[in-house]
Design brief:
Chain lengths: ~290, ~325
């Protein structure tokens, strides 16, 4: 490790040393070392020096969690509309078009089925880079469809949250997605299929206050911002600065809101173990019909 | 205190009062003149309330003197017994809950309560619930389920409380759990948005078989002020945000987010609280009679389908 670090210091660590085109080297948000961008990407979007967890594109996330060549995409057949004719500084259709032009998928979500260590799963991954990962009608519908289909096909369900909350531009319809996604989990529960929720940086608002915190197991990546009300809203309310580490994964773990905080590199293995352990007795134990209430 | 757009109405009302007094004092017959003014008043009220902007309606929804949860509880339900506390973290006065009688049936009532004066507002945290409030709600849903009490919730909050202690105690998690627990009720559930339906903090107690809304109430994914602060980068643009958010009863009915609009007395519920309360009582009664006809499975199914279909999107080519 020490040697490893010594070699890394050979890299330019001051801006004026950096003669490469901008963007090839970046200063790590956490350790402030100059790091070769490709090294971060090749390292699951983790800083090779300090293990800082950068946000991860949805396809990379899927490839990291799902066994090679086993992914079958479910989402993508529906796209957003502008039900309210919403205009702020831009129109909602303009915002959507800009996001769609720079993204592969029509909204902030990728869902599908696949194998995770050879276990049948369904997965829903939110895309923070698309309109702040906000949950509007499409995101809500895709998550609900994925949860329902997972139950139908007897798959464990995994969500990877990365979202600023409900999408304001679809008004109360977005709010209703909180109820819709929450209710779609019932089918999984009644079949005793595990729902594992992974919270990543950042997850807040309506996403945190609905399906994402209803996992049988809820885990987060290190230092992810996880909140109901964002830090700025709270600062405005209480008119004082927030303590260091407030609303980060470790803070939630200490307050009893998470099952664990897990490094990205260990995430797949952990999820695999959870599913394996939770499902091991499912077929062997004769479960008497226990009414839900 | 009256709302800005109400000033001409209030002026005219004052004028009628003065004229009546004058006529009495002078022993004059001003019957016709007063009658004309009253007609004009009615027309003025009707016109101004029909043409309220969404932002003005936000003000009516928040108006001082608008009946609050407690006003409805006092007048609609008999034999109300308040039940306090979440049995874990504490007691949240922003949510009033208890068992009562309604239309010859035992029911569970939950109401978000804003203050009717400054002192009560501080006590009730302006109707903004803490995690303990949502935990209390979850407890009440379970109690209602166990003893087959229909659940009636009255929504009136700008939103769940955004603060350090609330975050520490899992505000998001308890809201999610409350949404989930309410969706699992095997008894009829009716929600009435009596004032403000503010975001997830309101939805947590609004996952009902029937969601009703008073004519001048609002229900929104975010408050206009917060929306303006984010999208316009200026909270002062709240009026524009209110327009964009389509948060009025009429807007919400068109989007199927609410099932029924309860008419308010002319001039708004704050002008005639008793009339508003009577209308709400009548609406709840009618809805409950219908829901009582459904069995447990049908209630669950109806509620699931009601929320499952909400959302607008298009098939991609
Ligand atoms: Zn670093």
């Amino acid at each position: 490790m020490a040697l490893d670090r010594w070699f890394r210091r050979k890299k330019p660590n001051r801006k004026d040393d950096d003669k490469s085109p901008s963007g090839l080297w970046i200063k790590c948000d956490s350790c402030e070392n100059q790091v070769y961008r490709k090294d971060i990407i090749a390292n699951l979007h983790l800083c090779p020096d300090c293990n800082h967890h950068y946000r991860m594109p949805v396809d990379d996330r899927m490839e990291m969690l799902i066994d090679e060549d086993s992914f079958e995409q479910w989402s993508g057949t529906i796209g957003p509309v502008d039900p309210l004719g919403f205009v702020d500084l831009k129109t909602y259709p303009e915002r959507i078009k800009a996001a769609q032009d720079s993204h592969k998928y029509p909204d902030a979500i990728l869902t599908g089925a696949g194998l995770l260590d050879n276990q049948r799963v369904a997965i829903a991954i939110m895309d923070f880079s698309f309109n702040g990962g906000s949950m509007g009608s499409v995101v809500g519908e895709e998550i609900a469809r994925a949860a329902e289909r997972a139950a139908e096909e007897e798959r464990a369900f995994i969500t990877v949250a990365a979202s600023g909350g409900a999408r304001m531009q679809e008004g109360a319809l977005s709010l209703m997605q909180m109820a819709k996604t929450t209710m779609s989990l019932a089918a999984l529960a009644s079949k005793r299929l595990p729902f594992i929720s992974i919270l990543t940086d950042p997850t807040s608002g309506g996403t945190t206050a609905s399906f994402a915190t209803l996992g049988d197991i809820i885990v987060a990546e290190p230092k992810a911002l996880i909140a109901f009300a964002g830090p700025r809203v709270i600062e405005q309310t209480i008119k004082q600065e927030l303590p260091e580490g407030f609303q980060r994964s470790e803070f939630l773990l200490n307050n009893g809101m998470l099952d664990d905080v897990i490094n990205r590199k260990e995430l797949k293995q952990k999820i695999s173990k959870y599913i394996n352990l939770l499902l091991a007795n499912r077929t062997t134990i004769k479960v008497k019909h226990v009414p839900a209430i | 205190m009256s709302l800005q757009f109400e000033k001409p109405i209030d002026d005219l009302e004052d004028k009628i009062v003065d004229m009546r007094k004058y006529a009495e004092e002078q022993g004059m017959d001003l019957y016709e003149e007063i009658g004309l003014l009253e007609k004009r008043l009615k027309r003025l009220k009707k016109e101004s309330f029909e043409n309220l902007t969404r932002w003005q309606r936000v003000h009516v929804a928040r108006a001082a003197g608008r009946p609050t949860g407690l006003d409805y509880i006092d007048k609609i339900f008999t034999n109300f017994n308040e039940l306090h506390g979440d049995r874990a973290l504490g007691e949240d006065p922003a949510l009033i809950s208890g068992i009562a009688e309604f239309n010859d049936q035992s029911v569970m009532v939950l109401a978000q309560q804003k203050g009717r004066d400054t002192k009560e507002n501080i006590h009730r945290n302006f109707g903004m619930m803490h995690p303990s409030g949502y935990r209390k709600a979850i407890r009440m849903f379970a109690l209602a389920d166990k003893f087959k009490l229909p659940v009636i919730t009255l929504v009136d909050t700008i939103g769940a409380y955004p603060g350090i202690a609330a975050e520490e105690r899992g505000q998001a998690l308890v809201i999610a759990e409350s949404i989930q627990r309410m969706s699992e009720l095997t008894v009829p559930a009716i929600t009435v948005v009596i004032g403000e339906g503010g975001s997830g903090g309101a939805l947590a107690i609004a996952v009902a078989n029937k969601v009703l809304i008073l004519e001048n109430s609002i229900y929104s994914v975010i408050s206009p002020e917060s929306c303006a602060a984010i999208l316009w980068r200026d909270a002062a643009e709240a009026e524009k945000a209110a327009e964009a958010l389509k948060l009025t009863a009429k807007d919400l009915l068109e989007l199927d987010i609410v099932d029924r609009i309860i008419e308010e007395p002319l001039g708004g519920a704050h002008k005639d609280p008793q009339a508003a309360i009577d209308s709400v009582a009548k609406a709840i009664k009618e809805e409950l009679i219908e829901l009582n006809k459904l069995d447990q499975a049908e209630l669950l199914q109806q509620r699931y389908e009601r929320f499952r279909k909400l959302g607008k999107f298009q098939e991609m080519a």
